[in-house]
Amino acid sequence: MPERTIYFDHAATTALDPRVLDTMLPYFTQEYGNPSSIYTLGRHAMQAIDRSREVVAEVLHCRPTEIAFVGGGSESDNLAIKGMAFAAQKKGKHLITSAVEHHAVLHTCQYLERFGFKTTYLPVDEYGCVDPEQVARSITDQTVLVSIMYANNEIGTIQPIAEIGRICRAKKVPFHVDAVQAAGSLPLDVTELNADLLSLSAHKFYGPKGTGILYVRQGMRILPQLQGGSQERGRRAGTENVAGIVGTAAALRMAYDELPYVVPRLRALRDQLLEGIVKIPRSRITGHPTNRLPNNASVAFECIEGESILLNLDLLGFAASTGSACTSGSVDPSHVLVALGLPPEWSHGSLRLTLGKNNTQDDVDAILAVLPGIIEKLRGLGL
Fold first, then answer.
1. Is 29 within a domain?
2. What is the pTM of this model?
3. Is 286:322 a contact under the CB 8 Å cutoff?
4. Pick the catalytic residue: 62, 129, 303, 326?
5. Alpha-carbon gap, residue 234 to 104, rounded angstroms
6. Is the domain of 310 the same as that of 235?
7. Which of 217, 211, 213 lies closest to 165 in space, CA to CA?
8. pLDDT tens-digit profile of 113-150?
9. What's the mean pLDDT in 211-216?
């Protein structure tokens, strides 16, 4: 077995930054109070949450009162979409999203369809880009929400969010942005993005799992999806995860303080990965060639199963991912790659390598040294 795993799956999750852990530890032990309690221990916990809210608001350039802490990216997407849809259903029951969204968005829209909502799933071009003009043409007087992701979790393509937001603002339709993959790589100024709601997940930027953020612009009416107490200004019932909230804010602050140094280095490593991989016969880049996340190298190989590539990489000590998902014993191509128009002989052979701040030049050299041999071997075996 390899001595260590060389990790190329930062789009799936990231390791908790030790500095973030240090900020969290007191709230597991000495400062364990319930923030709703009025005595000193409880007040200390609430003060920690208030400070964390201010930190997040600084990064997003919004008011602290517009920040709600939730249980992760999926919950944030659910609360944004369901909360807005149910609050506005007397006005209309039409939603707009894209065909390449994360399942936390797509499945939520499908859930709402059980309640009479109708969803327009916008197509994308060969690079996974949404056309803002299609958004404009799809909006009707029944539209209550548009939800478009900032950057795609599989192929890394960055959407024209600010332009889509301007269109929504002009037509007075609320605009939700799933920014889970963008956090730590792209600017999150909600004013410049023209976002009314924005979702984040801490474990994508070296924070703890099970914690997330939902920005809700002042004036947006949103119905809570958890019933109970009045925490988070009535938007999310339940005793707050104080340690997780503190860690989330610390991780976000660190990610944006380090962004000017980390992003250029990752972009250079990513470009080397892509340049090396496309030298392999019958390979291609998926997603936009340049307008993509700085750490995302997503590719496809003709007539090979992505899972076979992953298993061979794993045996050699590399962690990566594929756009395919094993369902009921059969391998189905990613809905994202299908939406790009990629034929089955290509969409089944997807590979996603996503870099993190601890990856090195040696890591890139190591995977480029073994990947061509793996592809050649699998082609010889018909896998």
1. yes
2. 0.95
3. no
4. 326
5. 22
6. no
7. 217
8. 999 999 999 999 999 999 999 999 999 999 999 999 99
9. 98
